[in-house]
Amino acid sequence: MAWRVPLADLDYGPEENQAVLDVLNTRWLTMGAVTQEFESQFASLLGVKHALAVSNATVALHLACLSLGIGAGDEVIVPSLSFVATSNAVLYTGAEVCFADIIGPDELTISPEEIERVITPRTRAIIVMHYGGYPCHMAEIKEIASHHGLDIIEDSAHASGASLDGRFLGVWGDVGCFSFFSNKNVSTGEGGMLVTDRDDLAAKVRLLRSHGMTSLTWDRHQGHAYTYDVVDLGYNYRIDEIRSALGLIQLTKLDPNNARRRIITEDYWKALQSSSLVFPFKDWSKKVGVSSSYHIFPVLLPDDIDRRVFMDSMRDDGVQTSIHYPPIHQFTYYRKRYPNVHLPFTESVASHEVTLPLYPTMDEAAFETVIQAIPKALSKQIS
Ligand SMILES: Cc1ncc(COP(=O)(O)O)c(C=O)c1O
Questions:
Q1: How far away, in angstroms, is 266 Cα from ligand 1 center?
Q2: What is the 156 CA–ligand 1 centroid distance (Å)?
């Protein structure tokens, strides 16, 4: 489908092309010096002790759970209004999830009161997800976690470069997990990063991301080792040099691109203020100390608008829209596994939500195309 305005688009130029060619010319493709540089720059950007690059954010979340010792018999609290990976990562370990509702239509992040409600003697950790790059209520969540002796994992897939009270998202909890999937604010195609200040967790993740081996092919190539032992049951969750090189270039664009996303978001709010749409996070984003990465632009449709009709009308005008998210607990697999979950805010928001196009290279013509398509799409009532 050739969209006039896609949902997301890459900000790639000759510098990404050159970075890939530079890697090819070194003739070293798997995790090595470029990846180490990517990790080091990511860590210093966030002001965190350890950054470990991995294949994607899903495996970062899996490693986060494993490094915290989560497994069979444990429970982890997760939001249902997230990508399914947030919850799948817990199930991979043999633990179970407990779904918590969101704060409400104004803020689509996990509710601290809900976290308290679903804590049981088996609860080991909380995974928060900074929806759209808008921070969860971390101070409150940290207080609950420390009161109950729980660990915190931040699913920061949307939140590269976002911060709260002067501290980057991803470094508030025990472990933060970032995604570099191709529609993310830092795009490498597939890719992810796990960050932590804890030496014990970093050591465990380093082992588990590469088969539990005590040395890497890169170490042997450099003459630092001839052989290896396997000291844990690990995985191949490594990244490669091509993706790391793309990540390094993308990091240099993160600040200006997040600033550009912010301008487009504010322009949307202004241009659509007299429409019947509801804008989550509009007030929260204006609070002192809150700095989003504006990863996506969610809106809520009024009750009398059929979402399918709205999205079809936008499509007919060449505008791609999406839904963030079908709630995890309502997927067939999850309904069978957890049949009695009811989350009123999540269910209501998820049935009204539409995501409009947002990307840093979006120009005025593309923006205007979206704005002009909306009144028409809203005027098509349920037949
Ligand atoms: C909130 C959230 N968590 C986790 C993931 C998984 O990221 P990845 O595709 O890098 O595995 C995504 C990706 O879409 C996401 O949006």
A1: 25
A2: 9
3-state SS class at 200: helix
Could you give the CA distance from residue 279 to residue 262 in angstroms, rounded to a whole number?
14
Site to probe by mutation for ligand 1, drawn from 127, 156, 169, 181 as the one with most ligand atoms within 8 Å of Cβ, is 181
pLDDT digits (tens, 9 = 90+) for 297-310: 999 999 999 999 99
- Residue 174's SS3 state is coil
Whether a cis peptide bond, with omega within 30° of 0, leads into 325 is yes
What is the Cα–Cα distance from 369 to 356, expressed in whole angstroms? Answer: 11
Q: Are 120 and 114 in contact (CB under 8 A)?
A: no
Ligand 1 atom closest to the Cα of residue 129 is: 1
376: annotated active-site residue: no
Q: Which two tokens stand for residue 132?
A: 């759209």
Residue 83, ligand 1, Cβ within 6 A: yes
Contact between 340 and 98 under an 8 Å Cβ cutoff? The reply is: no
234 in Cβ contact with 209 (< 8 Å): yes
Evaluate: CB of 56 within 6 angstroms of ligand 1.
yes
Amino acid identity, position 189:
G
> Global pTM?
0.98
